[in-house]
Design brief:
- With 248 residues, the chain is mainly alpha-helical.
- It has a single domain, classed as Up-down Bundle (Four Helix Bundle (Hemerythrin (Met), subunit A)).
- It has 11 helices and no strands.
- Helix 5 runs parallel beside helix 7 and helix 6 runs antiparallel to helix 11.
- The longest helix has 30 residues.
- The radius of gyration is 20 Å and the shape is globular.
Length: 248
């Protein structure tokens, strides 16, 4: 979540105790953690009210995360219609929502571990839409679904998938530049593309997408925005949203 990784306070998804417990139990001899007959007899065979889906969805940080997923979906739909300015604006909005839900989660340190795990996974999927699927589709539409664009889009999606999957590794430290910066860079590129061209060159976007993909997986610890740096990022994103919406 956020820049990069407040996954439900929130580095997805091993910050909850149940995940660590499962990993620990998996390392024990089978006999040491095999279910007892009494356990099998009393284990619930269906979803109990306390584990109903509604309680996970109704959690405030998770509701905010879901709104970010919808913003990413909207960006994808607008990209399919070649309305790239508003599409990028929605993708940036999804990033700002990503900042908000992480901080809401951090402000609730006593949330149920199961709800935290649900939120961490939901956050990953929302991020994959706005920072993975949307830029890939934008490139494909710009290029009229050209062969090379398919290759670059595939590389981009793989990088985003690998990066977010890596966050599930126990003890994994943050790695590479956040995809948040990629969407910010794509927005700037769209606004300053060479004069005289109606649309951003797919070759320019594709080349820049490959460059950002390298940075997304580069072996360095990314900067963690806070304070004035975070305020500047949010301010720049809001300014870009206004400019992008003005493009129609």
């Amino acid at each position: 979540m956020a820049i990069e990784g407040f996954r439900d306070g929130r580095q997805c998804p091993f910050e909850n105790l149940s995940s660590f417990t499962s990993i620990f139990r998996s390392q024990l001899p089978p006999s040491s953690h095999a279910p007892k007959e009494t356990d099998l007899a009393t284990s619930p065979t269906s979803e109990t009210p306390s584990q109903g889906l509604a309680r996970f969805v109704a959690d405030l940080p998770n509701l905010v995360t879901f709104s970010g997923l919808l913003a990413g979906l909207g960006a994808t739909g607008l990209a399919a219609q070649a309305r790239f300015g508003p599409a990028l604006a929605l993708a940036l909005l999804a990033i700002l929502i990503d900042q908000l839900d992480g901080r809401l989660a951090q402000a609730r340190p006593h949330r149920d571990a199961a709800i935290q795990a649900f939120g961490a996974h939901l956050d990953c999927y929302a991020d994959f839409v706005s920072k993975g699927v949307f830029p890939a589709l934008m490139l494909l539409v710009l290029s009229d679904f050209g062969f090379l664009a398919w290759a670059v889009a595939g590389i981009h999606l793989a990088v985003i998938a690998f990066r977010y999957s890596y966050e599930f590794v126990p003890g994994a430290s943050p790695r590479g530049l956040s995809p948040d910066y990629s969407v910010l860079a794509f927005s700037l590129l769209f606004l300053v593309h060479p004069l005289g061209q109606d649309l951003l060159s797919p070759a320019l976007l594709g080349g820049f997408m490959l460059f950002m993909s390298v940075l997304n997986l580069a072996p360095f610890r990314p900067p963690k925005l806070a304070g004035s740096g975070l305020a500047a990022f949010v301010g720049i994103a809001l300014g870009l949203i206004v400019l992008l919406l003005a493009t129609g």
